[in-house]
Amino acid sequence: MKLITLFLLVGMFAVSGWAQSGKYEPYSAELVMKAEAGDALAQCSLGSCYLEGKGVTQDYKEAVKWYTRSAEQLNRVAQGLLGFCYLEGKGVTQDYKEAVKWLTKAAEQGDAEAQFFLGVSYFHGEGVTQDYKEAVKWFTKGAEQGDSEAQCLLGMCYDIGTGVAKDEKEAVKWYTKSAAQGNEGAKKQLELLKSK
Fold it and tell me: Residue 185: exposed, middle, or buried by beta-carbon count in 10 A (0-12, 13-18, 19+)?
């Protein structure tokens, strides 16, 4: 039960690092022209505008179209967001294997959010064979880069001994780092540990 509750709490905040961070260029005629001319960064930004409906009508299929163009040019953020779209079935038919393909490309380039989602895929066995040690590997990579969701789930793995040896000190370390960034799931887990 503890595991399910934590995943539900983490899931509510999971996408905050990518599209919702506001790190992309806002929608404009100039952005569209750059994207159509093949600029990978502009294509990724345009995809995010469509994903969120900022400056343009929300359209997941258009988001996927622009993320795909950018991802094919090796833009790691676009690769991760394209993986997320496949994971959630936004603008495409939900396809865990395709999600893992794109998340892996982004994760291997060091994208912390992709590392987090790839870890979740391995944890649940969605698109890949379930492998807790592989999940911990990807959570660790994301956590070390400061991704609060990866930190929280890495703390959870140490807390319950999944994929790693149970280690309350390590659990507290990662929950604390995550909680310091405002992660509600990590805050709740710290409270639970203190109440033991």
Answer: buried
